[in-house]
Write a structure and sequence with these properties.
Elements (H helix, E strand, L loop, with lengths): L2 H16 L5 H16 L4 E4 L4 E4 L2 E15 L2 E11 L12 E4 L11 E4 L9 E10 L4 E7 H9 L8 E5 L5 E5 L2 E9 L2 E7 L6 E8 L2 E6 L2 E6 L5
Parallel strand pairs: 4-7, 5-8
Antiparallel strand pairs: 1-3, 2-3, 3-4, 5-6, 7-8, 9-10, 10-11, 11-12, 12-13, 13-14, 14-15
Length: 233
Amino acid sequence: MTPKDWIKIVAGMLGIFLVGMIVVSGVNAGKRKVGEIATTASTLSIPMLGAPFRINDLKLGSLQQLQVKRSAPDRIEGFELTITLNDSVDVERFADCELTVTDAQQIDNKMHFACLTEADSGFADLVQFGTITFKPSGQRHRLMLPSSVAEDLRNGTDGQANDTVSRRDSSGNVNIKINGEQIVDIQGSDSGGRIQIRDPKTGKLIVDIQGGENGGTVKIDGKTTAKATSTGH
């Protein structure tokens, strides 16, 4: 996994986490969260907003939360995913196979899954990289990824530090850049602020959150999705 892949995952997480943070307190909370992602090894808890849990294009439930365990800002040690199954789905259907993501570079709310057995191609290369907890039963199963992907996630961006820069400036604002291109920009103060997230591949502005004393707005892909007006303190 390249630094650009890593930043793309982070940007996707931020996009999910920050939607709805549109008043002053939300902007400041967004600043703290980006700083936490960029500079610490804390666990990231990402709401998955009920995105579908699919196997072979069958919707079997919904994704609830993804926890990202880290040993350094750019080193992922494992994923803990919570999934709510549909009422008609028996959790025992997963007892004799291993759950994996069909596109291991896409760890976000659009993930698709497969349940592989020893007879399936690629099974021998899978290693455990976390757990899946099924609700409402509470049963836990292993989450498997190809060994090369797991190794890349654990190794982070060692040896490629010149390609990516994460920093906070003297005013406490947060910037994440890759190859000189700004991906995340957090500007804020007690009176308000702005959060912008760009697509790492195209540079397109995909999330734009503004907040101030009189309220704020959220724009996704240039379209206003929410507005809020401050009611005072």
